[in-house]
Amino acid sequence: MAAYDLWLDSYGAAYDTVPGPLLLPCPNCGHRCLRLVFTGDLDSMVGYAHFWCDHCGQGIGISRTTIPEGAVVQDIRQAREDRQPKIPNYQLVQ
Ligand SMILES: [Zn+2]
After folding, report:
1. Most buried residue, 6, 48, 50, 61, by most Cβ within 10 Å?
2. Are 54 and 19 in contact (CB under 8 A)?
3. Around ion ligand 1, which residues have CB less than 5 A away?
4. How do residues 50-60 score in pLDDT, each as one tens digit?
5. Burial level of 55, CB count in 10 A (0-12/13-18/19+)?
6. Residue 16 and residue 19: Cα distance in Å, rounded?
7. If you measure from the C-alpha of residue 25 to the centroid of ligand 1, how many angstroms do you get, rounded to a whole number?
8. Domain coverage including residue 11
9. Residue 57: left (phi > 0), alpha (psi -120 to 50), or beta?
10. pLDDT tens across 21-30, in order?
11. 61 C-alpha to ligand 1 centroid (Å)
């Protein structure tokens, strides 16, 4: 399976664990350092997702999704530099 598809599979699994702890192994390096943060509208709870590994610095972006209850969400109405939590400049897997 292509790297992107592995990440997409892992994203689906991570999405289903929200708001629980994210203990899945990274599809690239195997470390349990995956992070899932959404950026979106806090009223409609629609936005996009950032899914990456803090250990190897790879990840994917999901363009439009429903934000699950209890997820970590950046408020899209805030200026990009003010949004919390900070998201590192990770390498997008194609
Ligand atoms: Zn990794």
Report:
1. 50
2. no
3. 26, 28-29, 53, 55-56
4. 999 999 999 99
5. middle
6. 8
7. 8
8. 3-92
9. left
10. 999 999 999 9
11. 15
